[in-house]
């Protein structure tokens, strides 16, 4: 009963706060975007500069209803605002693992390890889409459709090097 009451109170509080509106994220260039604090106070959200005050107000209001971990700059790293496909996004700054990965053409898969998660910097392969019959034919893995996967790290079913049949990794 307590949990149900707490959940209902949290929903009511959140509805009073409002929400980040989609137009607050719209951008044409990176200079349109700015980093703001997320609802937990971590400096890792981004919004259009024109709406930063409103977005920050919503996040501060939501923070009162959340149980958030304390911000730890060493763990969190640095973030920069960027306009990605017309939407303001927070991305890792150069000098951080995520920022260095993205700067060199990789895709950041995160730093939290565990079952079902890829971690670290996932770099593209040079043989993406090349026909293959076994794992050794590719830099990464040979997909079940007979083509090489385009990234070094892979999760799913494929022909991995040293195996004669398809193996599935969660």
Structure, described:
- Residues 1-14 and 71-75 have low confidence and may be disordered.
- The protein has a domain at 2-90.
- It contains 4 helices and 9 strands; from the N terminus they run H-E-E-H-H-E-E-H-E-E-E-E-E.
- The radius of gyration is 21 Å and the shape is elongated.
- It has helices at residues 2-17, 52-63, 73-76, 97-103, and strands spanning 33-36, 45-48, 79-84, 87-92, 107-108, 121-122, 142-143, 156-159, 167-169.
- A hairpin with a 2-residue loop joins strand 3 and strand 4 (87-92).
- It is an alpha+beta fold and 170 residues long.
- Strands 7-8-9 form a 3-stranded antiparallel beta sheet, with no helix packed on it. The chain has a two-stranded antiparallel sheet with strand order 1-2. A two-stranded antiparallel ribbon has the order 3-4.
């Amino acid at each position: 009963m307590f949990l149900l009451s707490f959940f209902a109170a949290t929903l009511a509080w959140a509805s009073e706060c409002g929400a980040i509106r989609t137009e607050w994220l719209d951008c044409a260039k990176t200079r349109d975007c700015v980093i703001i604090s997320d609802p937990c106070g971590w400096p890792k959200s981004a919004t259009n500069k024109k709406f930063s005050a409103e977005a920050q107000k919503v996040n501060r209001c939501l923070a009162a209803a959340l149980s958030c971990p304390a911000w730890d700059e060493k763990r969190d790293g640095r973030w920069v605002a960027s306009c990605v496909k017309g939407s303001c996004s927070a991305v890792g700054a150069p000098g951080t693992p995520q920022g260095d990965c993205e700067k060199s053409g990789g895709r950041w898969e995160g730093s939290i390890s565990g079952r079902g998660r890829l971690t670290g910097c996932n770099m593209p392969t040079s043989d993406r889409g090349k026909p293959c019959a076994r794992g050794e034919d590719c830099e990464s893995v040979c997909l079940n459709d007979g083509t090489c996967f385009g990234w070094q790290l892979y999760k799913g079913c494929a022909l991995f090097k040293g195996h004669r049949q398809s193996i599935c990794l969660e």
